[in-house]
Structure formats: C-alpha cells, structure tokens
Amino acid sequence: MNLVIQSLSAISGSHLRPLSALARAKQTQRVNDTLLRLTDADPLQRPDIDAYCGTHQLDYAYIAPDAKLADFGLVAMDMDSTLITIECIDEIADFCGLKAKVAAITEAAMHGEIKDFSESLTRRVALLKGLDASALERVYEERLRLSPGAERMLEGARAAGLKTLLVSGGFTFFTECLKARLGLDYTNANTLEIVDGKLTGKMLGEIVDADVKARTLRETCAKIGIDPKRAIAMGDGSNDLKMMAEAGLSVAFRAKPVVRQSALLALNFVGLDGLLRLFLF
C-alpha cells in the first residue's frame, strides 16, 4: 500500500526518516510541501503511524497504489459537523435559550452514548415547539459555515465524474439550501413541521437515522448504476457508521473516536479537500 501523509502546514524534513522507518516503506516521496507519499508501506504498522501522526498533527491514509478518484461514482456526506461546521439543531435551540441542553443530547448521540438516535432527535425537536420558523433562516444566514475545503472537494469530485449525496439526520431546510448553493445531486434529511409560522416540535415522515442513511446510500448507488463499494462516505458521528460501512471508502472527518476507529481513514487536521489529495499521483 501507499501511505499518504498530509498536513495543513509544511511537513518538516525531520519527519521523513521516522515516518519511513515506522511505515517500513520502500521509498518516501515529497509530492509538495504539505504532502508525502511512502510507497510499499506495511499496513500492519498502522498503530505506530497513528500514534506518530496524532502527536505531530499529521493526517495519514493507506491507499492502493493504483487507486484513482475516478474509480468511485458517488461521494456521500453527512451534513452537521462534516460538510458544515455547526450542528444546526443546537444553533436553532439557541434562539429559544436551550442550546446547552440540546447540545448535550446531540453530543451524547454523536459519541454513541445514546443508542436510539431517533428517540434522541425526537426529544431535541420537541424542545423547539413554538419557536418562530424564521430562526431557521437566521441559522443559515448567520451561523452556518462550510467546513474547510468543502467546495474544493466537491469541485474535484464532480470533475472526476462522481455524483454527490448529502444525507443528514438534520433538516431539509438546510440540506435544500446547500443543494441549491453547491449544486449537489441528491439529498435526504428530516422535515420539521411548521404551522402558522411556528415549529410544532414534531417532524413529518420517516426519521433519517443510521439505518435510513445506509439505505439512502444503497438506493442512490442503485439509481446511478454503481455498486456501493464504489461510493465514498464521509461522516463524524455514530449515526454515520452504518452508511460508512456500506461504502468502499469510509472517511472520518474531525470525527468522534468511535467513528475514527471504524473508518478506513480519518481527516483530523486537514480540510475536506484532503480527500482529493489522496489521489494526487
């Protein structure tokens, strides 16, 4: 396997020898200041590489030597804390003075401490009852920010022929805004019920939980005529794990420990466009 090392800043030459030794690599190539490729690296050395890279704020990934981004046909992304930097429901709750309470439930759910995502989401949404629906627009305009490298990653994926899927345990108000803004191909999320301009504290239709995320990935792959193993899935929380398990390449982005441990690779420091840099050869 090739071992790809990348960083937000220039990778010091002092890292070359220890990384090569730890990886038991045949050759170390500096692709550019922030990107290294170590050829014929031993994947069994991953624990040592993980410890070294974590200490020095480097991201790493084992990639097949002949792998190309164009080998894939779909990139599927979680929304909150993956494609965007915020948890939308926490920011909505801030407009009714309940951010801390809702955020605590969100955090526990994403870490996998609350096993029933649907139940935890229902509890959080119920706390929003009576809030003016204009709060959704304010969250989008005032607080929602794309994660670093998001637009570059999407542009690169499209250039390689991949379709894009945004699948979220969040809300359709935000996924539809992002679909229009970023030119995404497919989305799936939860619909907040609004009556007379107010949130009712309920949702309409099926809740997008871990199982629905995984099913959405499979159905989207079937729609575009590819095997799920030709999909890339990116996420940060435990409700992304089933979707990520369906994909051929699973990417943990700034993720919770349970997700980093399960994913094929993790981007802990670089932006989402770090995905593209894995194939810059």
Automatic annotation (TrEMBL):
<keyword id="KW-0460">Magnesium</keyword>
<keyword id="KW-0479">Metal-binding</keyword>
<dbReference type="InterPro" id="IPR025138">
    <property type="entry name" value="DUF4072"/>
</dbReference>
<dbReference type="InterPro" id="IPR023214">
    <property type="entry name" value="HAD_sf"/>
</dbReference>
<keyword id="KW-0718">Serine biosynthesis</keyword>
<protein>
    <recommendedName>
        <fullName>Phosphoserine phosphatase</fullName>
        <ecNumber>3.1.3.3</ecNumber>
    </recommendedName>
</protein>
<dbReference type="GO" id="GO:0016787">
    <property type="term" value="F:hydrolase activity"/>
</dbReference>
<dbReference type="InterPro" id="IPR004469">
    <property type="entry name" value="PSP"/>
</dbReference>
<feature type="domain" description="DUF4072">
    <location>
        <begin position="3"/>
        <end position="49"/>
    </location>
</feature>
<keyword id="KW-0378">Hydrolase</keyword>
<dbReference type="InterPro" id="IPR050582">
    <property type="entry name" value="HAD-like_SerB"/>
</dbReference>
<dbReference type="InterPro" id="IPR036412">
    <property type="entry name" value="HAD-like_sf"/>
</dbReference>
<keyword id="KW-0028">Amino-acid biosynthesis</keyword>
<dbReference type="Pfam" id="PF12710">
    <property type="entry name" value="HAD"/>
</dbReference>
<comment type="pathway">
    <text>Amino-acid biosynthesis; L-serine biosynthesis; L-serine from 3-phospho-D-glycerate: step 3/3.</text>
</comment>
<dbReference type="Pfam" id="PF13284">
    <property type="entry name" value="DUF4072"/>
</dbReference>
<comment type="similarity">
    <text>Belongs to the HAD-like hydrolase superfamily. SerB family.</text>
</comment>
